[in-house]
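User: My collaborator sent over this chain with a note saying "see what the structure looks like." That's all I know about it. Can you take a look?
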Amino acid sequence: MPLIQIRYNASAIPVEAISALRETLPAVAAKALTCADNIKCVPKDIMLEFERMSAFDLNCKDINIRVWAHDYPSRREILDLAREHIAKEVLKHVPTEVSWYVWMLPMPSSYGSDAEQLFFSSSQLKYGTQSSL
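Assistant: Without extra context I'll predict from the sequence alone. Here is the result:
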């Protein structure tokens, strides 16, 4: 599940822009991050985290967007294109004079969730615990 972290300067980015990004960015990012090798993203796969900047932040843009996603060879091939696609959506909603960046961060990763933990717990009860893989 890709994670998009959006940090913003509340005095430069209106709340309407943040609301619009919350609504539109999952679909745009899902399309941008879908790549070959049957790597398909849908909007419900995209996690968004919004955070206001603080007075202690230093050398930041008005809106900082970091896209963390699983690193697949076919995704590496489209990183610049995906970044541009996401940036175009962001620029539709923020004032033209603000500073910004979109940073694509593919990484080796392993994802688990609470639903997966329930599956593991029920498997251990049914089949016994295993000490090694």
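A starting point for your reply to your collaborator: The longest strand covers residues 63-70.
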